[in-house]
C-alpha cells in the first residue's frame, strides 16, 4: 500500500467556440496506490502496480486526477 502527500505542477487547456483557456498551477496532492511483488529469483521481483493522484484546485486551475498502471521490477543487491 502506498499513500502520501505531494506537490504537483500541472497544466491544461480547454476550448469553447473560439476561446481557449490555459490553466497552470502548482498545488498539493494526495497520492495512493497498490501493488503486488512476486519473487522470481533470489534477487528479482516483478508485479503489477497502480498509482493515483488527486490534485487540489488552485486559483485559475481545475482539480486534476492522474493515474498510471504498470509493471514494477525490483532487483536486490
Describe this structure in words.
- This protein is mainly beta and 77 residues long.
- The protein has one domain (2-75).
- It contains no helices and 5 strands.
- It has strands at 2-16, 19-35, 38-39, 44-55, 64-75.
- Strands 1, 2, 3, 4 and 5 form a 5-stranded antiparallel beta sheet that branches.
- Strand 1 (2-16) and strand 2 (19-35) form a beta hairpin.
- It is elongated, with a radius of gyration of 18 Å.
- The mean pLDDT is 85.
Question: How would you summarize this macromolecular structure in one to three sentences?
Answer:
The chain has 77 residues and is mainly β.
Rounded to the nearest angstrom, the radius of gyration is: 18 Å
How many beta-strand runs?
Answer: 5
Helix content: under 10%
Biggest beta sheet summary: 5 strands, antiparallel
Q: What is the tally of helical segments?
A: 0
> Based on CA inertia axes, which overall geometry fits?
elongated
In round numbers, the mean pLDDT is 85
Number of domains: 1
Low-confidence stretches: none
Proportion of residues in β-strands: over 45%
Structural class: mainly beta
Q: What separation lies between the terminal Cα atoms? A: 23 Å
Give the topology string: H per helix, E per strand.
Answer: EEEEE
Provide keyphrases for this structure.
77 residues, elongated, 75% strand, mainly beta
Write the layout of secondary structure elements.
Blueprint: E1 2-16, E2 19-35, E3 38-39, E4 44-55, E5 64-75
Antiparallel strand pairs: 1-2, 2-4, 3-4, 4-5
Amino acid at each position: 500500500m502506498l499513500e502520501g502527500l505531494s506537490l504537483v505542477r500541472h497544466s491544461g487547456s480547454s476550448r469553447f467556440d473560439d476561446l481557449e483557456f490555459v490553466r497552470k498551477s502548482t498545488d498539493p496532492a494526495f497520492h495512493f496506490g497498490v501493488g503486488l511483488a512476486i519473487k522470481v529469483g533470489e534477487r528479482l521481483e516483478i508485479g503489477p502496480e497502480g498509482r493515483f493522484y488527486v490534485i487540489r484546485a488552485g486559483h485559475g486551475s481545475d482539480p486534476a486526477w492522474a493515474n498510471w498502471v504498470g509493471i514494477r521490477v525490483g532487483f536486490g543487491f
